[in-house]
Structure formats: structure tokens, C-alpha cells
Amino acid sequence: MPPISVIPGDGIGPEVIGEALTTVDELGIGLEFDVLDHVNADRFLRTGVALSDEDFQRVGASCAALLGAVGDPRVRSSEYARGVLLRLRFDLDLYVNYRPVKLLHDRLSPLRDATRRAVDLVIVRENTEGLYTGVGGTLRPHSPHEVAIDAEVNTHLGVSRVIDFAFSAARTGVCMVDKSNAVRSGGQLWQRCWRSAVAEHPDVATSHLYVDAAAMKLISDPTAFDVIVTNNSYGDILSDLTAELAGGLGTAASANINDTTGFGLYEPVHGSAPDIAGKGIANPIGAILTSALLIERLGHHREAAAVRDAVSAAVAAGRCTPDVGGELTTKDSGAAIRAELV
Ligand code: NAD
Ligand code: IPM
Ligand code: MN
Questions:
Q1: Known active-site residue 132
Q2: Strand 33-35, strand 205-210: pairing
């Protein structure tokens, strides 16, 4: 099997990915890593290269990819994130962004009502279209008459395949989230694809919410959701919200996948967190649970479950970083999780 390509990236990316790699190593399942640690903001600022064609081919030749985070306060344009993360998502056609959410421990819930805390849902975010394609442009830049247009791209193929994936991931139900009461063309397309998928799955409980109401309902009763399918932007925003419901942004895992090729790029939901980078306090749980998603997809189901159990045990014992109520460093938190592996 080819190695797993690894892009630690920037800020806390390398700190948390280090713990994820050590944890996967400890499982003894014979996976190898091809680390591209030159893909970072320093190189982009120095050379203007985000991800070279050679880097892209290395990732494409791997069995799966693991990414920490890309982003640096010194980089002002979107070209860097577009050049690394969005290039990988788009050019490898990783059309599903799968973001599972399950409350890690009761004490981490921001919800005051205990009956609302049994959060166990998945955000299925469309990952190759929407506002992220770069279609658009600027007229008369830097003038009072500047016009800036970012077109929201929705294709029948893109919308229908992500909705199909959502149904394949459903345990009890699927809720489609859009803003079709205000956004005309894309709204109609999502609604049509949705209605035809609903008709094909009479056995699955289905519902529809506008995104503003969905944000409200995720706080008032997150237990009402199983799988949420939505577009690129709403999925981005709602998945930070749900990460917080489940234990905090530092604990949330995600996978960018193409369900046909089977290739996946795995990354924690959080970013490079420049405010805490270098302090040794970043929570490695998001990265470690992300590596569990990765090895699960490669067929190591028992080991993935063991990693999840070890994370829960370490958190329950308070052996974790400050953001989740502990006092450990990133490295000690990783070690505490590995100590729970049986
Ligand atoms: P962020 O996710 O980096 O941080 C938001 C807040 O959460 C910060 O207060 C941070 O300290 C905290 N946080 C995040 N991860 C944490 C962890 N593991 N442990 C403890 N606390 C954690 O979001 P931001 O500040 O908006 O973005 C910073 C940079 O990261 C930007 O350049 C952004 O574009 C980039 N970004 C990259 C990715 C990615 O590569 N997948 C995702 C999101 C943001
Ligand atoms: C994420 C991030 C990215 C996104 C940024 C860094 C482009 O926020 O993975 O959630 O919006 O997809
Ligand atoms: Mn995001």
C-alpha cells in the first residue's frame, strides 16, 4: 500500500499532526507516512508557491492524505488556502466534506439542558462548488465604484451526488439545509434534487430547514438531527457551531472524500490557531480523531474504535488540554490518549 501523505501545514497544524502520527504508529498497523512539511505559509511567502504540481502528484499517489491546517496571519490573500486546501478538494474531486459530531463528555456541552446533549450527527457539506469555486471577479478595483462578484456555483451533478451521499450515511434521517426562500436559482436546484432524492428513499425520515432556522434548532435541540446535508458555505459555518456543541473546535474531525474513487483528505475542522501556536497547548484530539476516520476508511475499524475510546477515556479522566478543562500540553494530551489504548 502506498504511504499516507501528510501536510502538517502552519501554526498548530504540525503540533497536532505530530500527536496523530505517533498515535497511528502506536497502533502497529504498518502504515507509512510521506510528510510534505515544506508545504506551508513560509514557503508561499518566500516563493509564491502554495502547492506545486509535484506536491499535488505526491498527494494523489498516496493512499490517503492527512492535513493539519493552512493559514498564517502574514498571508492576506485567499490564494494560499485556495492553492493548498481548495486545490486538493477541487482537483481530487473530494465532493463530500464529512464532519461527524458526537458529544465527547457531558461537562463539555455548552447547552444548559441535559436532555439536549445527546448530540450524534453528521454534517455532510458539499465540498467542490458553492461560493468557493472562484467564479467571479472585480470591476474597477480600489475605487468607490468597485464591484466584487463571487458567483455561487451549484450544478445538478454536484448537488445530487452530495445529497445521495447523505442518504447513504443516514442512520435515521436526513435534513437538507438551504436558503431557498431567498437565494433563487441555487435554491430551486437544491430543492428539486432534494425532492427527487426524498422520493427515492421513502424509508428514511426527511426534513428541510432554512439555514437560519437550522442554526437555531442546532442549539435548541441538536438531538433532532442525524445527517445534515448542505452547501459549501453553510456547511463550513454550521460545522464550527456543531464542533462547539460536541466538545469544542479543537476536538472536531473531518474527512474530504470522493465516494467513487475512495480517496480522502482528512483534516481537523479547526484552523492553524495563530493565537495559541507555539505555546504547546493546542488540543490534539481533533487531529487524532481525524486520523481515526482515516484508518477506518482504510479498513482498520477495530483500531479506529480503540482510538475513539481512548480519547473519551482520557477526557473523562480530565487528562486533556486547557480548552477541554485539563492542564496538559499537546504532547502530554497525546501521550495520555495513547496510554488509554488497549
Ligand atoms: P481557528 O480554527 O484556527 O481558531 C479559532 C479559535 O479556536 C481560536 O481561538 C483558536 O485558538 C481555537 N482553536 C482552534 N483549534 C484549536 C485546538 N486544536 N486547540 C485549542 N484551541 C483551538 O480559526 P481562525 O482563527 O479563524 O483561523 C486561523 C487560520 O486558520 C486562518 O488563516 C484560517 O484561514 C485558517 N483555517 C484553516 C483551516 C484548515 O486548514 N482546514 C480551517 C479553518 C481555518
Ligand atoms: C474549513 C476551513 C476552510 C473552508 C478554509 C480554510 C478555506 O474553514 O476546512 O472548514 O472554509 O473550507
Ligand atoms: Mn471552517
A1: yes
A2: unpaired
Q: Mean pLDDT per 10-residue run, the chain (342 residues)?
A: 97 98 97 98 98 98 98 97 98 98 97 95 98 98 98 98 98 98 98 98 98 98 98 98 98 98 98 98 98 98 98 98 98 98 88
* Matching fold, domains 1-95+253-342 and 110-245: yes
* CA atoms 274, 277, 283, 287: torsion sign: positive
Give residues with Cβ within 8 angstroms of 286, minimum separation 6.
16, 243, 249, 250, 251, 252, 253, 268, 269, 270
Instruction: Give the type of residue at 165.
Output: F
Domain formed by 110-245, architecture: 3-Layer(aba) Sandwich (3.40)
* Pocket-testing residue among 233, 236, 242, ligand 2, by greatest number of atoms within 8 A of Cβ: 236
Please give the distance, rounded to the nearest whole angstrom, from the Cα atom of residue 273 to the centre of ligand 2: 13
Please choose, from the candidates 234, 228, 271, the residue with its C-alpha nearest in 3D space to the C-alpha of residue 152. 234
